Amino acid sequence: MAHKRGKKYQDAFKQVDQDKFYALEEAVDLVKKIDFAKFDATIEIAFKLNVDTKQADQQLRGAVVLPNGTGKDQTVVVFAKGDKAKEAQEAGADFVGDDDLVAKIQDGWLDFDVAIATPDMMAQVGRLGRVLGPKA
Q1: CA-CA distance, 121 to 106, in Å (whole number)?
Q2: Is-contact 78 85, C-beta < 8 A?
Q3: Nearest residue to 98 (alpha-carbon basis) of 113, 120, 114
Q4: I want to staple 79 with a disulfide (CB 3.0 to 4.6 A). Which of 25, 65, 121, 129 is the partner?
Q5: Which CATH class is domain 76-135?
Q6: What's the CA gap between 84 and 96, in Å, rounded?
């Protein structure tokens, strides 16, 4: 049973050649051209990589930094002492602390997105595993 689609969708659909493979830049330009949504739409992209993920040497890991970010700010907490704490503050961390920050989180404060710890703080931060584990 065929689904009925709106006129704007049908007009956009007619502008896409179903038998053509588009280069990335061309595809993005086409998507922008045929966009008819009255809100900020998202684009999903899928890659066929022809890798066998069961093979150890074909595992795929990576991260991509988007040029304009994801659209939302991340709150960063850094567990550090001394000069490293100063460094983290200068680098733009939202909250920097050592034992006081550990105690605050043990009391239930979880109003942050990312937590980073310097190696010398790992003994104290390790105690937060039960609190931070479910958040991950």
Answers
A1: 15
A2: yes
A3: 120
A4: 121
A5: alpha beta
A6: 10
Nearest Cα residue to 96 out of 72, 113, 116: 116
Q: Is 109 left (phi over 0), alpha (psi -120 to 50) or beta?
A: beta
Q: Which residues pair with 53 in a beta bridge?
A: none
The tokens of 14 are what? Answer: 């007619």
Q: What angle do CA 32, 38, 39 make, to 5 degrees?
A: 80
Q: pTM score, two decimals?
A: 0.50
Which sequence spans correspond to the domains of the chain?
A: 7-58, 76-135
User: 16 is written with which tokens?
Assistant: 């896409």
Instruction: Give 119's pLDDT tier (boundaries 50, 70, 90).
Output: very high
HSE (side-chain half, CA atoms, 13 Å) at 86:
2
Of the candidates 134, 78, 136, the residue with the CA atom closest to the CA atom of residue 102: 78
